[in-house]
Each structure stands twice: as C-alpha cells, then as structure tokens.
Design goal:
The complex is a heterotrimer of chains A (114), B (632) and C (172). By secondary structure, chain A is mainly alpha-helical. Chain A has 4 helices and no strands. Chain C has 2 domains: 96 residues, NADH-ubiquinone/plastoquinone oxidoreductase chain 6, subunit NuoJ (Four Helix Bundle (Hemerythrin (Met), subunit A)); 36 residues. Classes of the chains: A mainly alpha (114), B mainly alpha (632), C mainly alpha (172). At the A-C interface, helix 1, helix 2 and helix 3 of A face helix 1, helix 2, helix 3, helix 4 and helix 5 of C.
Amino acid sequence: MIVPFGHVIVLAGALFLLGITCAVCRRNLIMVVLGVEIMLNAASIIFLAGALRWFSMEGQVFVVMVLAIAATEVAIGLALIVYAYRRTGSVDPINFNCLNEQPTGSQLAGFIRE
Amino acid sequence: MASCWIENSTLLTAIVGTWAPFVTFVLIMLFTRHRPKTSAGLSLASATVSLASALVLLGGHWNLQRPLEYTGRWLVSGDIYIPFGYLLDPVSLLMLTVVAIIGFLVQFYSLGYMAGDPGFSRYFALMSLFLWSMMCLTISPTLFQLYIFWELVGLSSYFLIGFWYEKFSAGQAGKKAFVMTRLGDVAMFLGVLLILLHLGNLNILEIDSPKIVGLMPPEMLTLAALLIFGGIIGKSAQFPLLTWLPDAMQGPSPVSALLHSSTMVAAGVYLFERLFPFFLFSSTATTVGLAIGTISMLLASTMAMVSRDIKQIWAYSTISQLGFMLMGLDAGGLFAGAFHLTTHAAFKALLFLCAGVFIHQYGTNDIYDLAAKGTRRMRVPMLCTIIGAGALAGLPPLSGFFSKEVILAKLAGLPNPIWLVAALLGVFLTAYYAFRPIFIMLFPPSLPAANASNAAPEGTRHRLLYRIMVGPLVILAGATVALGFLQTPLRNFLAGQYTGLTTAGGAHLGWLPYVTSLLATGGVALTWWEFGRPGARQTGFVDGIPVIARFFAERWYLDRLYRAILDHAVDRGISAVLAQNDTRVIDGSIDGISRGTVLAGRLAALINAGMIQYRLLMIFAATVLLSLYFFF
Amino acid sequence: MTLHGLIFYLLASVILASTGMAITRRNLVHAVLYLVFSFIGSALLFCLFGAPFLALLQVIIYAGAIMVVFLFIVMMVKPDLSEGTVLPLRQLLPMVLFGFMYAVVGVLVAVTDPAGRAVLETAVAKPTEFGHYVFARHYLAVEIISLILLIGLMGALHLGREKVPKEPEEPS
C-alpha cells in the first residue's frame, strides 16, 4: 500500500515539465543538457512505477537502458559543448544560429509580390 | 472442389476448352511473335481444342435437367465471398458451342485473309484473347465474373478494331467502340452493385430465382434491371449507343465477322438471356427493352437502306437483328431470342466473311465499285452471300425465316399490336436492304471486260489462300440452311432452362408465317424492281427524296448530335467551368498555400532567430497538441 | 495514509522542490548540486518502488558520475555568470502556455485513466533476480547498450581532441 498509480504519474509529469522548462528557457547550453537529464529521470520514475503496478520486470530493465542513454548523451552532449565553447567562446544558444538565414526586408516584400 | 476437379471429366473439359485460348495468347505474346506460322498453328490448335470441348460438353449434356455449377473460392473480403467457377446450363452450353464454332471458322478463314500481314502473330494472339474472354463470359456462374470478362471482351475488341493502328480512322473507331460501350458498362456496374447490396451475392442462379422479388423492393428491382439493361444497350449497340458498331468495321473483316456474330455484340443479348427471369420480374424494364429494341431495329434498317459500304450495311443489319432479338426476349420468349441469336451468328458470320473475300480481292468497300469490278464472277462467295442475305431477309427455307417467325409469334401474343406491326415493318425493310447490295452486285449497269486475270485468282499460293477462305464460307452456308430445321430439338434442349417461366409458345397464329414470307418476298421484289430488273436506274426509292436519304446516310445525325452535345455541353460548359476551377481555385489555392508556407516560414524564421531552444519548444508544443488530439 | 504513502509524498516534494531550485539557479554549480539532491531523492523513490539495485545505479551513475562530469564542464567552460534574466520572458511565455496545456492533459489522463486508480503494492526485485532476468531475457538489449556506450566513448574522444581540424568551407 503505497499510493495510487495516478499520483506517481502526476509526480513524473511535473518533473518532466520542470525538465522541459529548463531545456527550453535557460540561456545556457549546459542547462539544456541538464534539463534533458531531468526529463530522463522523470521517465525512469514512471517506468519503475509501471513495473510495480503491473508486476513486470520489463520496466526495470528499461530503466537500465535509460541510464545508459543518459550517460552516452551526457558524454557526447558535454563534449559538443566544450567543442562549441572552444570555437566561439560562448555557451549561449543564441550564438549558434548559423543555420538561420535572416531575410532582408526587401526580399520579403518581393516575395509577397510574387 | 479443388481436389476433385481432375476426376470430374465435365469440369476438366470445360476448363481445358475455355483456357486453351488464353494459354495460346500468352505463348504467342511471349515466345512466337516473330514466327507467324507457329503462332497461327498454336492459335488454330487451341481453337480446335475449344471447339472439341464445347461439342463434347453440348453432346454430353443434351438432356441436362439441372444446371451444373462448379465454383471455387477466389476472394473473401469481409462478408463478401467471391466465387469463381463454371455454370453449365442449356443457355450457356448453346452459346459456348456457337462461340467455339464461329471462332474456329473465323480463325481458319483468317489464315487466308491475314496472310502476309506484318501483325500476323499479334492478330492471332488477340483473336485467342477475344475467344477466351467470350467463352469465360459464357460460362460465368456469377455476375461479378461475368462483368470481368465482359470488360475483357470490350478490351480485346478494342485491340482488334484498332488492329491496323497506323490508320488513323481505325484507332478512332477502336476508341469510339471502347468509350461508348463503357458508357453502358458504368450503368451495368451500378446495377450489379445494387443487386449485390440487396442480395448479398451475385450468383446468377440466385438472381434468377423468384426469391429476389422478396429481397428487393419492386422499384429497386426495376432500377437494377434498367441499369443492367444499359450495359446491354452499350454492348449490343442498341439505341442510343449504336453508332460505334458501324465504325467498328475498320478492323479486319474476320474480326467484324466474329464481333458481329457471336462475341462482342452477342454478349449483350447473352446477358439478357442469362438474367432472363430477373428481367421478367420487372414489367417496366421489359417494356423499355421492347421499345429500345424496336427503335434500334427500325433506325438501323433505315440507315442500311442508303449506305454504299458493304460492311457498313451488314453492320446496320446486325444492329437491327439484335434489336429484333431483344424484342423477342422482352416479349417473354427465351427460346425466340436464343434461337435467333444462334441463326444470326451463322448467317452474319457468313455475310461478313463473304464481304471479306470481296474486299480482299478488289480492295474496296463500295458496293458499286465492287459491282463494276465484277464481283459476280466469284461464284462461291456470291452464292454464299445470297444465302446469307436470304436468311437475313427471312426467306422461307432458310434459318432466318424460322427464328424470325418464332419472335413474331411471341410478339403477336402481346396485348399491344403495335410491336407486331413494327416488327413486320422491320421484316419488310430487312428484306429490302439485305437484297439491295446483292442486286447491285449481281447486275452492274456495265459489265467490265471479261478480264480473266482479275476475276480468277492467279498463282497457286493465291489460289490456296482463296480456298482457305472459301472453306468456312461453305460450312457456314450449310449451317445457315440447316439450322432452321433444328428448331424443335433446340426448343426441347432449352426447355430445361428456367422451367415454369417459359410461357406457352405464344399464340401460334396460322397466318403469321404466310404474312412474314409475303412481306419478305415483297421487300425482295421491290429491291429487284429498283436495282435488279434490266434497265433499272439503280436508285432506291429513298434516294428519290434527298432530304430523307441524307438524313439516313448521316445516321439520323446521331453522331453529330453526340458531337454537338460533347462540344457544347461538355467542352464549353462543364469543361470550361472545370478548367476555370482548375486555374482559379485549385491552382490559385495551391499557389497561395505554397506562397503562404514560404512566407510563414520566412516570418517564423524572423521570430525564432534560428535558435535551438525554440526548435525544442516547437517539438514540445507539437507533442502536447498531439496528445490533445489522441486523448480527446 | 500509510507509512509508505507518507514517505512517497515526502520524497516527491523533496524531488520537485530541489529540481525547481536547480533550474532557476544562476550559478551553475549550485544548480548541479541541487540536482544531485533531486537525483538522490529519486534513488530513494526507486528503493520505495522495490528496485534497490537500480537505486544504487542511480546514485552511482546519475548523482555520482554524471553530475561530477557536469561540474567538471562547468569549471572548464567558466560561463559568463552575468547573463541577463535567468528565464527570459520571450522563451518563458510560450513555454508557460504549452506547459499549462500539458499539465491539463496530464492531470485529466491521470484522473480519468482507470489504471491510475490502482494502488501500488510493495514488492522488491532482488538484485540477483533482476540480473538473472536481464541476462536471460534481454541479453541482446545489453549488447545494444554496450554498443551505444562504445559509440558515446568514441564520439566524446573525437570531439574532445585537442587539435580541432579546421574545415576551410565552414564559417567560424
């Protein structure tokens, strides 16, 4: 007799929401990766609760997977951050926008006329 | 049933007989396209196999009491179970035999007619395809299977009508035949769906059984019957879809012979025979059918009276005779229709093959040209033409007389005398137009100089080809004469079909045969007076009134009417609206969407500054919206 | 409310509070330390859910290894701590909007789902059983995990090399 399953869902959901807020709103690449970690943690919690709810060990096995993924993701993600920091001297995601092509006002106006 | 089909000799015969032509088609198309002789041999062999199996089936089941049905599962889709198999009953056996005999003779004849043609192998392959689809249509146990082969018949006739595809008019004629019959097929398909909706399956025996009256409300039954009748109108070239058939003579003559006698157009009448009780359940449908048969018969007769093209004359006569058959069937005479279909198959094939001999020899279709070139010197084909035309006109000792008399007796039994009067008028007109080309060809105004090399085919090879062509003519002429005397056995044979529905053979009026033969003789006499007697002006009474002659020659302006409808209503009306819709609405909206998308992308790019976190946010938003969609 | 339920709510509030603190800290070192608290709370929760082995892994890998790596990176990078607001409004507002929708959906699902009403019973998967289960049933998954870790290792090595090869066409 612990708690109803729904309460665990609410906990995991709230944790996930915090994680995504961190990943989306913080202006720092390290915090973005940290937010992803929080989200993975929320997933682990709900997997374990599910395993207990249906008395199946599959959920626990999956948590091992999540751990491995998290480790790998942190290793590569942080290596990427270091790499990017070396090249640009910044970890603010707003500086990594070279994919974005800002159209000029005249281009836009010409496009609307077409 | 799949396990025991080998042991069942009847089924085995049917399978071998009907599928041999298809095997031939595949073999020719795959392997022997460049070896014309092998192809012709294969094709002829398969036709022989089909003929033999059809004869064996007919002979073995002469005293058939109950229809034999063999079906195997082909497709199961939900509740709908689609069987595939064979239905052998008197109607289908008779038709199968007719198709096999005519097919065999025509293929034999083609050996001579098509000799040296570059498409020789292709021709025989397509002929086999044609034969296969028609035979399978004949023995279909379900309307669905029948519909498949119905379309295959249309397809192969399209190939054959447009066989000389280098000729523009041939391609056009093929297309016309295909599209016009398709118009009727759409109606038929709807009718079939309607039956499927109410009955749950398409088994022909169940459709024909009286229980369908309980399953379908009467107006639905009438509607379904009328829709299916639409398919018959298209296939059998009845009014108003009759103009494709005269153009279909662009194909080789043997093709016309096959098309007009036993396969393509006969398929329509055969479908009527197949669903005969079903049509009789709806009196509206039979009345409409009666009217359409009568109109087509009279219309085509008038067109034939002024045509100068020998194949076109016979084509019009086919339409009018098919109208005749439909009249007989709609009047409630299954035997009348089936018997006339059989005799018509024989004499119409004969007429077309004879015309083919003339055309092959002299290279023209015009009867006056043919006469001037000395057709009368080709004794055997000329004699055969006369026999065929006599049967067509319904002169007494020939088969056409007997079959027409049966139909007329049925019509005389109807309460309304107008159908009988119309039919008698048709008999008169038929005699007139059937003998018009004959007298023209027999008594040309100025005989050409006796040019021996022109008249008698020179060279042994040429003579051999000529003999090959003449052989089937003689056989068919014999059949034309003899079939009339087989009336009683055939009637007994068909009596097994739909027992209880065949009403007593109409009022057997003693005076009817005399009136009929009198009218036919009168028609022939009128033709003789105008075309045959020494010093005749060789112009028909219709030609004296140019307005009417022109009206008839232009096919009552039906083609022009269709053209005008197409041009005005479809091209300028619907198409214009659709085109405008295309450019304005569809193109415009798609352009607008694409421009809007790019514009939105640009604007969005302006806002989000290409930052990864906004992309992450978008992913999250999309997930949330998706979850909204999934859960509510 | 049973003792187990009490522990659950306690742990849940600790986890949520420490995580909330973590994501709002300006100083990254503080953020990581708060997150270590959160992960240790999660580990205790795992224990409560009958997975002691996974709880240990959580402490060792997450709270230990991964967070330490984070600390290292924070020290290596030395980010500019005088950035503007912690949570800029033009990113936070849409996040709040979608987060609200997400929360509504989540609560509705948790309330309406009949599976959510079932009360969890205590049970323990001993590490031995768990190990047997993993290696008997999911040996392929274990292989895949090892492959993924190998790839992660190679990627980190490649990215972390001292000499960054300059691609001429890439704008710096």
